[in-house]
Design a protein that fits this description.
The protein is mainly beta and about 450 residues long. The chain has 2 helices and 20 strands. The chain has a 16-stranded antiparallel barrel. Strands 9-14-15 form a 3-stranded mixed beta sheet, with no helix packed on it. β5 and β6 form a beta hairpin. The longest helix is centred in the N-terminal third of the chain and has 55 residues. It is elongated and about 125 Å long. The N terminus is likely disordered.
Length: about 450
């Protein structure tokens, strides 16, 4: 029997069979596409993770950025200097300090005699330069010679040992021009020393003085008559409050019958020996110091070789009383130590006799200074200084300095933390052995900016 299939039914059956067979194939194709997209996404995530790891590793390897300083009210948002100043070949843990001040002095003076054109005594108070009698004189001077610049370097070694150096200059002493036009002055060395641990070598304040006992003055020093004041090369050892030093030796002498004249034979062989001990507390501080030295002259044109011993002692300190007042003081006595007192121009260490032998000269000096703070910005200092020299008139004659003294009073106002405006009145008197004397009066103003 022959079965006849209709064409329409055949077509329907064919399409049904094709759909049944095609559905699994389509599903497989869609699944493959989804797997491919998933693999691409995983690859992208792995690449992003690798990039993130590289960034983290780079940040760990880079040097840490400097910590920004806290902003100061009124200061610019960005620092002026963005890098740290470190010297070449310095230890890794090194700090550098650069600073100083600009100081302009305005002086008007009256003296019993003439002080001299452009004499150092017109720029600062020099006790031994006060003129004696004669025609009185008046003059005014303006200068910025005592402006100052310093550089300090402090380091810690790999073994945590302290080592450092300090350099300081001003512009007083080396004139390169004149007052006609340029008023040019060169750098003058004040301090130049290195230190390591408890040792110091170089030029700085003599160990026979403590600059912390000096009062605040508009003048360069103020009570110069009674002050030990010297900077010189030395090697010093310090432990706690005790210090001992070997310092540059130098002798000053008055020629036979030379009055106040001084000569400086540089014939010393033995360093000056100084020692000091200081006690400190909330009440202030007090220090005692001693000096032992040799005076020596070995110039055939002057006389035979001659030596003498110089010895002296000093006490200095500051006593704090109340919240607005302190008292500063110093007293010195010795024989053959005059070079250390009053900027070395009051008297010489010794005098020569007719045969050229040295006789050491006795001298005493001291000062007292009271400081009072009216407010945080306004303060005043009252100072008195005096000295006396024991001269052998048979050797010096009547022209040798017998004594000098001075009184200073000032008023200093600081409208800003680093800006000082001051005025100071000075009265001074110098007397020589024959009874002649001279006086100086000075009114001095200053403007000083420290940085």
């Amino acid at each position: 029997m022959t079965i006849a299939v209709k064409p329409r039914r055949y077509r329907v059956m064919a399409w049904s069979m094709a759909c049944a067979l095609g559905l699994p194939l389509a599903a497989q194709a869609q699944e493959a596409a989804r797997e491919q997209q998933l693999e691409q996404r995983v690859a992208q995530l792995e690449q992003q993770l690798a990039d993130l790891k590289s960034m983290i590793q780079a940040q760990k390897s880079a040097p840490a950025p400097a910590t920004a300083a806290a902003p100061v009210a009124g200061a610019p948002a960005a620092p002026i200097q963005a890098t740290v100043l470190v010297p070449t070949n310095a230890y890794k843990r090194t700090t550098v300090k650069v600073g100083g001040f600009i100081k302009t002095d305005f002086l008007t003076s009256h003296t019993d005699g003439y002080l001299g054109d452009q004499a150092p005594g017109r720029d600062l108070y020099l006790p031994g330069a006060t003129p004696l009698g004669g025609r009185s004189a008046n003059y005014s001077d303006v200068h910025a010679k005592f402006s100052r610049l310093y550089v300090g370097v402090d380091s810690l070694t790999e073994n945590n040992e302290k080592i450092g150096a300090y350099l300081e200059w001003d512009f007083f002493g080396n004139s390169l021009g004149n007052e006609n036009s340029t008023n040019t002055y060169g750098l003058t060395l004040r301090h130049a020393y290195a230190y390591w641990g408890k040792w110091l070598a170089g030029q700085t304040w003599t160990n026979f003085m403590d600059p912390n006992a000096l009062p605040e003055s508009v003048d360069f020093i103020g009570p110069t008559d009674g002050t030990v004041f010297s900077r010189q090369a030395q090697i010093r050892y310090t432990s706690g409050g005790f210090s001992v030093a070997l310092e540059n030796p130098h002798t000053t002498l008055t020629p036979y019958r030379g009055g106040a004249t001084q000569i400086s034979p540089d014939h010393n062989l033995t360093p000056d020996l100084t020692a000091r001990y200081t006690w400190k507390g909330d009440w202030g501080f007090v220090g005692v110091a001693g000096l032992l030295r040799q005076l020596r002259e070995d110039e055939p044109a002057i006389g035979p070789r001659s030596t003498e011993v110089g010895v002296g002692g000093s006490v200095m300190g500051k006593w704090i009383f109340g919240t607005h007042d302190d008292l500063r003081y110093a007293g010195t006595y010795g024989k053959g130590i005059a070079r250390y007192l009053g900027l070395a121009n009051i008297a010489a260490d010794g005098a020569l006799d007719a045969r050229g032998n040295i006789e050491a000269r006795k001298i005493w000096a001291g000062y007292v200074a009271w400081r009072h703070a009216f407010t945080e910005k306004l303060r005043s200092n009252l100072m008195y200084a005096h000295n006396g020299i024991d001269n052998d008139l048979l050797l010096t004659g009547g022209g040798a300095n017998k004594s000098t003294q001075s009184v200073h009073i000032n008023l200093i106002y600081s409208p800003l933390a680093k800006l000082d405006l001051g005025a100071e009145y000075t009265w001074a008197r110098r007397e020589i052995e024959n009874g002649d004397y001279g006086r100086l009066q000075r009114l001095q103003f200053m403007a000083k900016y420290s940085f």
